[in-house]
Amino acid sequence: MSTEEKSAAPRSLAEALRVRDDVSLAALLRSRPDLVTPVPTDLTQLATRAGTRASVVRALERLDRFALQTAQALAVAADPAPYGELLGLMAGDPGDTADPAVSAALPRAVALLREQALVWGADDRLRLVRTARELLAPSPQHPSPTGLGPTVREATAGMSPGRIQEILAAVGLPSTHDSVSAVSALGALFTDRRRMAALLAELPEESREVLARLVWGPPYGQVTHDPAPHLRALLDRGLLLPTAPGTVVLPREAALHLRAGRAHRTPEPVPPPVEAAAAHRPQLVDATAAGQALTALATVEELLKDWDEGGPAVLRAGGLSVRDLKRTAVALDVPEPVAAFWVELAYAAGLIASDGGGGTSHAVKAVGDDERYAATPAYDEWRELPPAERWARLAVTWLTATRTPGVVGGRDAKDRTLSALGPNLDRSVAPEVRHRVLALLAMLPQGASPTEESVLARLQWERPLRAPQREQRTQPEEDLRTRIARWTLSEAELLGVTGRGALAAPGRALIGAPEPPHRAESSEGPGDKLPVHHHTPPAPAPLAPAEQAVAAARAARLLAPLFPEPLDHVLLQADLTAVAPGPLERPLADLLGVLADVESKGGATVYRFTPGSVRRALDAGRTAADLHAFLARHSRTPVPQPLTYLIDDVARRHGQLRVGAASAYVRCDDDATLDEILADKRAAGLGLRRLAPTVLAAQSDPAALLEGLRAMGFAPAAESAAGDVLIARADAHRTPPRAAPEPVPDGPPVPDDTLLTAAIRAIRAGDLASTTPRKPGAGSDEDGSSGAGGELPRTGAAETLATVQAAVMTGEALWIGYVNAEGAASQRVIAPIRVEGGFVTAYDHTADEVRTYPLHRITGVAELADDAT
């Protein structure tokens, strides 16, 4: 390309991209990653892809409110529009009504639109990409977001010439010889501030009131066949123009005069600040968050313990039934939405999964052929980690997961209920919103909690075009991003990422935010709103996976000192309860969880001993002596006599009956006990019959027989085929190894620097190959350009070899067509170095390296023009 051509104003988006440097192209591909998947062959293809409807819609959805308002103003401006016209549409007419903040922020918005290839051209010829103009420009079917109607020229397109001349006469303009000049004269009148003001002053008050109702949109109104005099005055002067029978519109030029030149009623050049509702001591925030983190770990462990021997059945369509979710909520003592959150978090972390029908249980109680949810082998590995690392894994999973528990209970597009652990719960925008909410909290002083309204207002300013999801019918007035933001604030508190609404130190580390240099003043509870200065630290950007792992490790290190040291003792009470005044060491917590049931949680956990819980410990292989020694060793208070009696009584009866497989049988040395069972009416459903004085046979399977005898008040023990007592362990049922569900990405991933460098080099080289002038000959037109269809050059084998050999001697570059081993055709610019053995070695400008090509794969060659660079 010559210097004269480079200095000329670009005539297309492709030419505008061609004069960009590599840094600018990298910024474009980073902000619009869909453009680089797959890598375009040249800049013309990149420009074409950047103008497709899907890509433009995606880019518009990622604009902040002011940048979007700027694009909307360009959609109603002239094409091309000078910067001065755009400034007038955004800030209004010069004078008292002009907004200086808009003038200051507009260059940034225009630069952003240029960077994302939505706007191109110099400041005197700004052009909005045609697809964006079509999406944002007004029409009767799709009213403009600015509330402006069509121009006078567009609104009068179907009007008769006589009617146009009547309007000219009514506003005091001389008649013209044609409709084009008449429409131009009318448009000039409406854009002349002085003459337009005089025209409006002649109207009755009722007419001006009608214009005031239409000026900010929608600009369309209805009129009867015989309009009132104040409407007739507007129709006669062209201030209302008919668009359809009974429908009129306020022309754009007239509306802009009434708006003092502004396209928007309220331009928003500055993002709304995130307001602090209350301030707390940072130490108090961290301590509160640490307490919530401990509760989160205990809740997940309690959930998995409840599902250790096989959890709820999997619905045919996938997920938990409503009844099972209610049971889980009761077991965890939380509301159902919170139970859905914990279930989904454990599932996203890979701690629970479907067992695929049966699992890996070694317990006597068969789970059955039904597919059920259960803990995974990864759960056992997770439990062995230090508490802070376990929390960090849960927190990172929550931050990056696309599964959204908040939609559980809603309806999908087919009006089906969305169930926990079921399909269709992924919302690809969720990780971005969660990270952004935490980033906004990180911009506040340490210890400051925000107002929910200010957080939502800021998010809506940053992404105003996100449409509501149709499947969420419970709250149609709120878009999905807003609801995810609300859920994020509550879920972060449940998980311990925040404390008292403020971002805790581990939460800051989790998103890679630096510690702020200033702290909020102490205030125990909500108070007056704290002023937030505009000089707040910038919000941290989302982290790459490797960076996220480092941030999680840092968060765990910050959280570990906030956790209390695990205790090795409990306080036994005379009412058959044990109080754990804090978190317990793992072996103590595991055995106590088997020996007793959790009665209440909080700062102190209360365990209750029952016959069933003691029998559970005996089933796990413990003896009465083991249990007595365990309690005496770990209790800071004397072991109460009622608890000793309870253990001895259950142990005396435990194993007196033996159940095995016949289908099943009951064996007992005391035949009187077997007589009692046979006489009990509740045993009728077990199908028992006596085989010997000490043996009963049953038609039920061993698991059902065990449950039936226990329901009758007995304490049977299962035995193996060899006659040994089977030990039922709490962690006996596990699923096969399962991978955690992969997040569903929100479009193509942002390319890394390595990919961007390679992509830009390939695009530049491909563009060089497609735009370099060639001498007239094979594959080129008379002017030296490539064929209309961009065909590859075609020459015979002899001519190809001769041309390449000549280029080796002269050192000239050639344009070649090449087909690789996969059959993909491309065009390249090469500088041949040598030719031997049927191969040509050349410096390939496309790949920016020396390569060797088989001559038989070269479709043809052409010499470059002498002025090619």
From TrEMBL:
<feature type="region of interest" description="Disordered">
    <location>
        <begin position="511"/>
        <end position="539"/>
    </location>
</feature>
<feature type="compositionally biased region" description="Basic and acidic residues">
    <location>
        <begin position="516"/>
        <end position="531"/>
    </location>
</feature>
<feature type="compositionally biased region" description="Pro residues">
    <location>
        <begin position="738"/>
        <end position="751"/>
    </location>
</feature>
<protein>
    <submittedName>
        <fullName>Helicase C-terminal domain-containing protein</fullName>
    </submittedName>
</protein>
<keyword id="KW-0547">Nucleotide-binding</keyword>
<feature type="region of interest" description="Disordered">
    <location>
        <begin position="767"/>
        <end position="794"/>
    </location>
</feature>
<keyword id="KW-0378">Hydrolase</keyword>
<dbReference type="InterPro" id="IPR026881">
    <property type="entry name" value="WYL_dom"/>
</dbReference>
<feature type="domain" description="Helicase XPB/Ssl2 N-terminal">
    <location>
        <begin position="570"/>
        <end position="692"/>
    </location>
</feature>
<dbReference type="InterPro" id="IPR032830">
    <property type="entry name" value="XPB/Ssl2_N"/>
</dbReference>
<dbReference type="Pfam" id="PF13280">
    <property type="entry name" value="WYL"/>
</dbReference>
<dbReference type="GO" id="GO:0004386">
    <property type="term" value="F:helicase activity"/>
</dbReference>
<keyword id="KW-0347">Helicase</keyword>
<feature type="region of interest" description="Disordered">
    <location>
        <begin position="733"/>
        <end position="753"/>
    </location>
</feature>
<dbReference type="Pfam" id="PF13625">
    <property type="entry name" value="Helicase_C_3"/>
</dbReference>
<feature type="domain" description="WYL">
    <location>
        <begin position="799"/>
        <end position="861"/>
    </location>
</feature>
<keyword id="KW-0067">ATP-binding</keyword>
